């Protein structure tokens, strides 16, 4: 069973920054494109960003130029740097493979206040 442990969320004012981390089990991390997903209250989970094994990144339009996804393959860790946060970024953030596999972590809550 894959394991994913997210951390780094918190409460921040609009315009602020956070950096999320996700530690993944070797069984999935070493051979997978990794992604960050988020679920806002009352909405479906959405894909925010992905990063290939080689470091190539892609982003959903709403976070381009504000978020940066990266990975450290030696540490089985994927990161999401988030700048210029706004209230629409509020949600529970998860990491998983892309496409996602069935096991999810507990997520880390990001709350942006106006």
Overview of the molecule:
This protein has 1 helix and 10 strands, in the order βββαβββββββ. By secondary structure, it is mainly beta. It has a 6-stranded mixed beta sheet, with no helix packed on it.
Low-confidence runs of at least 5 consecutive residues: none
Helicity level: under 10%
Q: How can the largest sheet be summarized?
A: 6 strands, mixed
| Number of extended strands | 10
Radius of gyration using CA atoms only: 13 Å
List the helices and strands and how they pair.
Blueprint: E1 4-7, E2 10-13, E3 18-24, H1 26-29, E4 34-39, E5 46-51, E6 57-59, E7 67-72, E8 77-82, E9 91-97, E10 108-113
Please give a quick description of this structure:
This protein is mainly β.
Question: What are the key terms here?
Answer:
single chain; 114 residues; mainly beta; 1 helix; 4% helix; globular
């Amino acid at each position: 069973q894959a394991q994913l442990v997210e951390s780094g969320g918190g409460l921040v004012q609009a315009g602020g920054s956070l950096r999320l981390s996700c530690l993944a089990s070797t069984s999935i991390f070493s051979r997978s494109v990794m992604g960050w997903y988020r679920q806002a209250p009352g909405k479906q989970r959405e894909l925010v960003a992905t990063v290939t094994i080689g470091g190539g990144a892609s982003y959903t339009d709403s976070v381009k130029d504000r978020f940066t996804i990266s990975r450290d393959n030696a540490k089985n860790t994927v990161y999401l740097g988030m700048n210029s946060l706004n209230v629409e970024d509020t949600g529970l953030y998860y990491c998983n493979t892309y496409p996602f596999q069935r096991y999810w972590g507990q997520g880390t809550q990001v709350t942006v206040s106006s």
